[in-house]
Each structure stands twice: as C-alpha cells, then as structure tokens.
Amino acid sequence: MIGIPGVGKTSLLSTMVEMIQKNGKTVHVVSYGTLMFNVAKENGLTDRDELRKLPVLEQQKFQKIAAEQIATFTEQIIIIDTHAFINSPEGYYPGLPEYVLKIIKPTNFVAVSAKPEEIYNRRMKDDTRSRDKITLVNIKKELDVQSGMISACAVITGSPVRLVLNREGKIDEAAEKIIKSIGL
Ligand code: ATP
Ligand code: MG
User: What is the pLDDT along the chain (184 residues), one digit of tens a residue?
Assistant: First the structure.
C-alpha cells in the first residue's frame, strides 16, 4: 500500500485489518518506515524524520535490510505500509526500487490518493511528525511522481495496481473497496 504522506494509509490500514480479521484471516501490517528506522537506530539515528535526509546510499542500505526482514514474515496476508518515493534532499528516491521488489515480491499494489486540499489539511492536523514544507503545489507534484513510480513497480513485477481515493470521512468505503477488489 503506497501513498504520499498524510493521504491516510495508516488510518485506512487499521480499518482494513479489522475487516480482514472479521473474515477469519490472519493479517500482518508492516510499516516499512518503522522497520527502516529500527535498523537505522542500531546505526545511531535518533529521529525518524531524519531518515529521509540521510545520503541515499545509506538509506538504500537500511531499505535492503528492511526488505529482507519482510521476506521472512509468514502470515497469510502481509500488507506493507510504505511510500512509492521518498522526498530526500537528492531528489525523489524510490521506496520500491527493483532490488526491493525482487526481495519482497508483492502480489498487488494499492495506490492511495485523495484530493490535494484534503491531503493538505490532513498533514496540517497531524503535529506528531516533522514534515517538509507543506504546499498544495508540492502535494500535486507528489501525486504526479507517485503515479510514475507505481507504474514502474507494476511493470517490473507484473502485479496489478489498484487505485483508491480516500475520500474525506469515508475510510470504511475505501477500505471495503480495497478488500473486495483484492479478495482479502
Ligand atoms: P504517513 O505517510 O505520513 O504515515 P499516512 O498516509 O499514514 O501518512 P495517516 O496518518 O493515516 O496518513 O492520516 C493522516 C491524517 O489524516 C490523520 O489525522 C487521519 O486521521 C486523517 N485521515 C486519514 N484518512 C481520512 C479520511 N478518509 N477522512 C478524514 N481524515 C482522514
Ligand atoms: Mg502512516
């Protein structure tokens, strides 16, 4: 599951988990960023929001270790909460480059989006994160970059991409759509 920051991935996922468990299946949600931050912490990093500012070479090292951890999970359904790209000082850098895709072998992609104005408001509401400068222009650009990155993922893996709009106040609706379309 990919989507730009503040689009509502984590919120959507908690609703989805409840629904999937009601269907009698075991599901494991993995936050790629949390896994990477745990690896980075062992290497001296203390602030999660500093991760994306490290030299890309270093982020790639942590990213690969996290992918190898994910590949060891054995639950029936594993959903990865991640980003199609990371906004690093060197530029937009892929969250799911080919070497990661080859390790985790995703069967499906879900690309979450929302109206730029709603994403803007959601980011402004959440003061637990230290975010980059928030502007509508940047959000629109990020949605564009996301679309290119996720197309590349689909082509590399041969797995389908389900696009989902996370409408304001309609998390249940979006969660149901995803579950139904993938058959979870
Ligand atoms: P990040 O990539 O930074 O982890 P995220 O995509 O996981 O972001 P969330 O943390 O799930 O985003 O959501 C951001 C904010 O938007 C939260 O305050 C959440 O409650 C709110 N939100 C998410 N989805 C909706 C929705 N459909 N309607 C209204 N508010 C929403
Ligand atoms: Mg999140």
Answer: 999 999 999 999 999 999 999 999 999 999 999 999 999 999 999 999 899 999 999 999 999 999 999 999 999 899 999 999 999 999 999 999 999 999 999 999 999 999 999 999 999 988 777 777 889 999 999 999 999 999 999 999 999 999 999 999 999 999 999 999 999 9
Helices (H), the chain: 9-22, 32-42, 56-70, 98-104, 116-125, 136-157, 171-182
Distance from residue 7's CA to the centre of ligand 2 (Å):
8
Confirm or reject CATH 3.40.50.300 for domain 9-178, answering yes or no.
Answer: yes
Nearest to 15 by CA among 166, 176, 125, 164: 176
Q: Is the CB of 126 under 6 A from ligand 1?
A: yes
Ligand sitting nearest the alpha carbon of 87 = 1
Domain ranges, ordered by start, for the chain = 9-178
Any ligand 1 atom below 6 A from CB of 14: no
Does the beta carbon of 97 lie inside 6 Å of ligand 1?
no
